[in-house]
Amino acid sequence: MITEEQKEDIKLYVMPYIQNMSYISELINNSNDMDDLIDKVLKLMNEDIELSTKTDLKILYEKLTEQLKE
After folding, report:
1. pTM score of the predicted model
2. Domain span including residue 9
């Protein structure tokens, strides 16, 4: 489970790179755990969506996987 503190940490970590933070924030808030969040990001990245949203998702995915490696 992702705690509220972890969700806020993720948002702060990606905020400088994200264009549509409200969309990304909602995605983070609606995720049960890190695996769920990563799965949702990957699924959305493969859908036909607006380029800026796809870019934001890609950045979020990269930052999440970076964080998991540490």
Report:
1. 0.88
2. 4-69
